[in-house]
Write a structure and sequence with these properties.
The protein contains four helices and twelve strands; from the N terminus they run E-H-H-E-E-H-E-E-E-E-E-E-E-E-E-H. With 228 residues, the protein is α+β, with helices and mostly antiparallel strands. It has one domain: Sandwich (Jelly Rolls), CATH 2.60.120.
């Protein structure tokens, strides 16, 4: 049983250096030389490009009929570790594993940069972790499903934006929770909630998974299964 709920905070992020400093031009000017890996919507094609070239792609393409390329889960800690100084820990996201880094779990945040229409498909986050997502610029649409709807979601194969009801007839029974995330919003999402995220505008966001007293038991059980 989950003891936390979906929550949107629109005040705390505005105090972060990341919110005050980061923009597409900031990344292009200061980190344009950094090589990043971008992927298509199905995660089956990856390309290594400079961040400068990728930002040019974001800003100068209509992205109407193409398979959108998205910079997901950028682990900046090797190539731009000083960016961590711009990211604060949200007050509502106390992490019991703060500072712990292993092959299975790393106490790091990731940066997402992408154009309009960039999508992270329907999924649950790993190892029963909670997550927070802080939006620096742009707008995003979140489509979220409670854990109780899992049996109607076909292990995430269904696309809530364009569902195939013949192939996935039970999907009609699922109840979506829709949220528009604006710049300055931090969304807190409980563990195991299904979610799809679509960029309405070119966007920059930070996300992190965390463990607290409400999901530590499920997390440890998952870790034990991983190491068997």
């Amino acid at each position: 049983m989950h003891k936390i709920e979906i929550y949107v905070d629109n005040q705390e992020l505005k105090e972060w250096p990341a919110y005050q400093k980061w923009s597409f031009e900031y990344f292009k000017s200061n980190y344009g030389h950094v090589q990043v890996t971008v992927s298509n919507s199905n995660f089956n094609e990856n390309y290594v490009v400079s961040l400068s070239d990728y930002i040019e792609y974001i800003m100068n393409s209509a992205h109407e009929d193409e398979d959108i390329l998205y910079l997901r889960d950028w682990d900046y800690t090797d190539t731009a570790p000083e960016l961590a100084n711009d990211i604060l820990e949200p007050k509502m996201a106390t992490n019991l594993l703060k500072g712990i880094n292993t092959e299975i779990y790393k106490d790091i945040s990731w940066i997402y940069i992408g154009p309009k229409k960039a999508i992270t498909p329907l999924h649950q986050d790993f190892l029963h972790t909670h997550t927070w997502n802080a939006l620096i610029t742009g707008r995003k649409e979140w489509i979220i499903y409670d854990v109780k709807d899992t049996e109607y979601l076909y292990n995430g194969q269904v696309d809530p934006l364009n569902p195939d009801h013949e192939r996935f007839p039970e999907f009609k029974k699922a109840t979506p929770i829709k949220i528009i995330q604006n710049p300055g919003d931090i969304i807190y999402l409980p563990s195991d909630y299904w979610h799809l995220v679509r960029s309405i505008e070119p966007s920059i966001a930070i996300t992190k998974n965390y463990i607290n007293e409400t999901n530590i038991g499920d997390f440890v059980e998952s870790i034990l299964k991983e190491v068997k």
